[in-house]
User: Fold this.
Amino acid sequence: MLISIDLYTTLIPTVITALTAVVLFYTVSRELRNTLAVSSVKRISEYVTLRCPTCGYVKVREFKVGDYVGKVDDEKCPRDGSNLVIMGIGKEQVSA
Ligand SMILES: [Zn+2]
Assistant:
């Protein structure tokens, strides 16, 4: 009887410790997966191609909310000062 009680008093904390470790590992690995998912999303960046209608100067910059194809951008051509026009919007997956 004494031996079995001793077994329980040692077994229960061991089981609790093991369970805590499993839960902790599960939580950490899930958070790690979330972090990885977020960083993989961040690696895909949207970009727009701007073109000067006067001289054909082409520039690529990051996509901003409200951008659409054919929009006259606020950015000016460095060569002749004409407003650049958005020629295309694309997604780019930057390989790590
Ligand atoms: Zn120009």
